[in-house]
Known about the structure:
- This protein is of the alpha/beta class.
- The chain has 5 domains: 8-75, no CATH class; 86-96 and 115-134 and 150-189, CATH 2.40.50.100; 192-280, no CATH class; 290-336 and 414-493, no CATH class; 340-412.
- The chain is elongated, with a radius of gyration of 43 Å.
Amino acid sequence: xxxxxxxxxxxAADGEQATLVAPAGLKSPQVTPEALRLIAEKAGVTxxxxxxxxxxxxxxxxxxxxxxHTAVIATSSPAVQGQxxxxxxxxxxxPTASDDSAAADQxxxxxxxxxxxxxxxxxxxxxxxxxxxxxxxxxxxVRGRDIKPRPGRPLSIKFHPTVSVDPEGQVIAQADGVxxxxxxxxxxxQSLDVPGNVDFSTGHIDFGGSVTIAGxxxxxxxxxxxxxxxxxxxxxxxxxxxxxxxxxxSGMTGQDxxxxxxxxxxxxxxxxNVKGAVDGDLIVxxxxxxxxxxxxxxxxxxxxxxxxxxxxxxxSLVVKVLGSEGWTPTTIKLGDVPLLRSPRRKVVEKAEEIKxxxxxxxxxxxxxxxxxxxxxxxKERLTEISFEASEIESELAACTATLDEIDAAIQSQRKxxxxxxxxxYPKVTLTIGDMTxxxxxxxxxxxxxxxxxxxQLVYRTGSSxxxxxxxxxxxxxxPSARPGGGSASKAAA
Length: 493
């Protein structure tokens, strides 16, 4: 009970509420809305319609005053806090989105080798919209004093120059690539850094730029990149496809399933049991063992060996040792441009299809022309045939020009340039066009094998004059390539 027998208004220290206390035993004129209003105003409470209703309710609730009456008559209006700045992603552009949605359906089998889905963008794509932070709205305590809100924090994401924000807040890609959000910076990247191994923690890698792998690549995994690939540790039984260069700093073991497809140059300490193709140069420090490779330019292994398997080399072959002391069968194919053979074959096939179409049109034209009184529709058809034939012949001319270009490239790139620094062992076979060269005895280098001016196979040691390659090896010509066939051979002296 109020010891002084007076009505009191108690205002909280933080001004969040005001409590009215009326002791028992007061007379009715003391507990009227008007009297209560004066007391509240004296306590500093700002009066509004809501508080007036509270005071009226308090007076009614006091009743006959048989007991002390207490009620909260006023509360503060809290401040509306400011909202932080945020980036609202457009559908399909959130690089932080989880890839686990499909895994939620337990009825589907899960491919544990499957990799992360990267968000690919093109210049001009609208990635999302930036919402700026808001200041918030002031509140008011029971005394009428402002309660200041906490303003929203600015957007924590920074934007790399490959991403821009227009005046409307639209986030727009400025380059083609893959969208990445790293250390709160949004960028369009042409490179991907893998901090560890390519394994079940990453899944397959399929990236529209360059890929740098700090670890190795585990068996069964694939790495595909539009540009370069660099791998710091061992590559085991993996598939690698890249449009640029491949650098494998710790080598590669194929384990009967490892393959490489390289659009540029490739560099390894060693290769073991690997299949594939390298459009440019293949550079190997130590050895190439039991591999089946097609090399579009030079094979450079000046301090190592090629033993086992079959290697096709378009350009120069520079190697320390061919074969092995154990006479490991080793085949090297030279003097051809194998990487152009497939596109040439496709052009030839297309040309044959066009020729068949031309022949069919010619036969149709001949049949119609045999009619001494062609109808109007026959005449229209002859006109159509002439137009179609003209169009198709233009296609044939384009195919012929392409074929000429490929043949010229094959002729210009075809070479025979073999440098052996130390030894060619028995059981090594060189296939050079329609010629097959086998070595019965070990040949000590340095040896240079090439064509002379008459396109004959010759070799040189040191600064000596060229001598027939048949002096140190068996040289066979394919029977079909010789007039009258037969099985002649030139044996080593």
